[in-house]
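An instance follows:
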Amino acid sequence: MQEFLFQEKTISPFSISAKVKCRKYSIFLERKIVDFAADIPFAKIPKKMKEHYNIEVPISSCQKITKKHAKNTSEKPIIKVSNKKEACIIAETDGVMVPTVEVNNESKDKRKTRKSQWKEVKLNLAKKAGSIDKFYGATIMSKEKSGDSLEMCVKRVGLGEKTHIHFLSDGALWIAEQVEIKFGTQAKHLIDFYHLSDYLSAASEVCSSDKKEWLKIQQKKAKENKIKEIIEELEKNLENDNDNKVKKCLRYIKNRIEKFDYKTAIEKKLPIGSGEIESANRSIVQRRLKIPGAWWKKETVESMLALICMIENGNWEEYWKREYERIKAA
C-alpha cells in the first residue's frame, strides 16, 4: 500500500477509497460485531469473528462498538405506527429480574464501592388478534416508562378509537395501574389463568384430600366466571389454613375481582394465558442478559434491551441503512 506525506500527515489512498480510517472499524464490520453481540456474550465474539471472517477483534472493541449502537437504538428508536386500525389487539406485560451493578466512578478502588443487585426488566408485547407477528418493548426503568413502552407497542400494531385491547398479565398492581392510565375502558384486563391456577393449586392442599380433582373443579368454575363460588369454597377452609395458602389465594382473587372474565375471552377465541410474554422473557431478556457471571450497569441493560427489541421488531435493516446514510453524508 502506498502512503504519502502531506502537511505532516500520512495519507493512504486505499483508506480514502475504502473510507476506512486507520485503527477504526468499518460500518460493515461493526454490523457483524453487533449482530453477534445481540445473541452471545462479548467474550465469545472474537472467536466467531475469526471463524467466519478471519478477522481478529479484541473483546474490548466488541463491547465498545455494541454499546455505541445499542445506545443509539435507545436514544433514536425506529418507530413505525400502523395506519391500519385493528378491531382487536392482544397485549401482555411481565417482569423478570436481571443482575445489575452500580459503581462509584469517583472511587479509586471501584471494587469497594461496587453494589450488586437484581432489578426488574419490564417486557411488553402487542399483536393483532389471530396474528403471529409481535411488537416488543422493554425497560429496566420506571413503571411509567414501561407504560409508555406498552402504549407504543399497541400503536405499532394499529390502535384506533374503536380498537378493543385484550390485555393479559399476572395481576401485578403496577401493571394494572399503567393499563388503566394508558387505555382506560378501551382495554379489558384479564388475569393470566395459570397464575390463578397456581394460587388455587397451593390452596388445594388445605381444601381437599383429592387435590387434583378439587383444582380441576375450581378451574372449570373460573372458566365459567363462577368466581364467587370459588371464593365461598375457599372461605369454608380458612379454619384449617395454617400456612395461609387459602388466605393468600383469597386475597389474590379479591384484589382483582373484576379481572377474571375467562368465559367471554373463550367465547371470542382470545387467549386466557400469558404464555407468550413469559416465553418472550426467556428468549429476549434472559437469553442475553441473564447469563452466568454477567452483571450489567443499569444504563447498559436499557440500551441492550432497545437493541434486542429493535431486532425482534424487524427494524435491523432499516437501522443499518440509517447508519450507512449518516456516514455517507458525513
